[in-house]
Amino acid sequence: MSDREHEIYDVVGIGFGPSNLSLAIALEEYRDNGRANGGENGRAHDQENEISSLFFERQPTFGWHRNMLLPSATMQISFLKDLATFRNPTSSFSFVAFLHASGRLPQFVNNQDFFPTRQEFHQYLEWAQARVADRIAYGSDVTSIRLLPGAVPELSDRLRLEVADAAGRAGRVVEARNVVVSTGLVPSMPEGTERDERVWHSSEFLEKYRRMNPAELRRVAVVGAGQSAAEITRFLYDELPHAQVSAVIPSYGYSVADDTPFANQIFDPGAVDDYYFGTDQTREAFWRYHRNTNYSVVDDEVIRDLYRRSYDDEVRGVERLQFLNLTRVTGVKRAGVETRVSLQVGPDAEVRELEFDALVCATGYNGMEPTALLGDLDRHCLRDEAGRYRMERDYRIVTDPEMRCGIYLQGGTEHTHGLTSSLLSNIAVRSGEIADSIVARRARKADVR
Ligand code: FDA
Ligand code: NAP
């Protein structure tokens, strides 16, 4: 293949977490539907229904927040909100189909639990990705998306993507009529805090923890009052019976994640329209009333587990689990193996310094941010007064009218599509909407020709 002739796809996905896995399945089922309806003309339908696609993932194999696969962590959504069911309840890619294939369907039902462990859901995702493996390139980091060299947007119906291999070597170049960016959340550290071998973000927790000798960890601290912080605090308390575990929490105590039925409606597919087509006032109300379904909150069961451990300590006259409440981390200094942490404590913001052997910052994430990937292409993407991407309902960035390629986002659209943007709740339906949009735009282009 010469330099000027590259692989060309209808869709290239960047990042292969659950969102783009769900899209790969939606495209696969679109093709299979065509075959099923094609009868004797199956071949013609095959061509019509084949949306060529390739998905790039920088990890060497599939992995969904592997560093947080803690033994007893459970899913925060029902198993029915899997990769496909809400779009196609008869899909062979459903969690129920996975259970059947694994010979565990009766046992799962006997367990009477809507919320599988994260470990089991990970097995499900691995099973599903293996069935679309011919469309995934692992160990492949997309480094840029550009217009074709010398092209003006109105004349080009393709974008060019550069991809580096696992060793960081540039080399592969592909072209795409549509890109779907799904690169995930971006870890956020407290200001003045750099990561190192003893200061970790929760997103790298298990990897960094396993590099340590547990005997060396006698004083550890976990920062934050969200689900990640509570799960890691519980894990460290159980794993390190000789250690003191300090929970640095900005609130007075952990707050519960509201997953009661009425509040849960915020994650229904229909809520996306209510948010997208709502007014600024309705959108503001969504956040004001329902932020506590997801952010800085913890599942009831984990809160009770932690309180029980703390109370048992009290009965035994030990204080292994220490809660530093109304406290924020403001900086960290490294002195050899000592990690000196600056804290702002209580209503008067009293400054304190404490030393730990390791500090885990479970301080959350920022939304997906594709600006760097888009580079110069970004100037064709329109933004609102607050500097955020303007988005079409079908998750396409609003671009200059002459741009003919589609740039879709899975993630990073909380400001336009609401709370499900960074979550799993709506991925089956969202992927179906993106697939439909790509198919419909292709058909419109064919009509124009
Ligand atoms: P995700 O982050 O999963 O995947 C993005 C992928 O893109 C990664 O694999 C990354 O390696 C890859 N990538 C990034 N840049 C790239 C590049 N330039 N080139 C190639 N590849 C690139 N939500 C929910 O609804 N229910 C739940 O139970 C949970 N549980 C949960 C647990 C934990 C520990 C966290 C941190 C978060 C959750 N979430 C959640 C929210 C979470 O955002 C969601 O579950 C999914 O991970 C979203 O899937 P995505 O595919 O969009 O991103
Ligand atoms: P999060 O909910 O955003 O919580 C971050 C916490 O860090 C907040 O309490 C925040 O307090 C605190 N914080 C930030 N800076 C701080 C500082 N300098 N000092 C002290 N505290 C600070 O993040 P998360 O817990 O990682 O959760 C992110 C997403 O992952 C959520 O969707 C969650 O449901 C999901 N998750 C799911 C599972 C699971 O499925 N089992 C496990 C983990 C996470 P303020 O709010 O005051 O800033």
UniProtKB/TrEMBL annotation:
<dbReference type="Pfam" id="PF13434">
    <property type="entry name" value="Lys_Orn_oxgnase"/>
</dbReference>
<keyword id="KW-0560">Oxidoreductase</keyword>
<keyword id="KW-0521">NADP</keyword>
<comment type="similarity">
    <text>Belongs to the lysine N(6)-hydroxylase/L-ornithine N(5)-oxygenase family.</text>
</comment>
<keyword id="KW-0503">Monooxygenase</keyword>
<dbReference type="InterPro" id="IPR036188">
    <property type="entry name" value="FAD/NAD-bd_sf"/>
</dbReference>
<protein>
    <recommendedName>
        <fullName>L-lysine N6-monooxygenase MbtG</fullName>
        <ecNumber>1.14.13.59</ecNumber>
    </recommendedName>
</protein>
<dbReference type="InterPro" id="IPR025700">
    <property type="entry name" value="Lys/Orn_oxygenase"/>
</dbReference>
<keyword id="KW-0274">FAD</keyword>
<comment type="pathway">
    <text>Siderophore biosynthesis.</text>
</comment>
<keyword id="KW-0285">Flavoprotein</keyword>
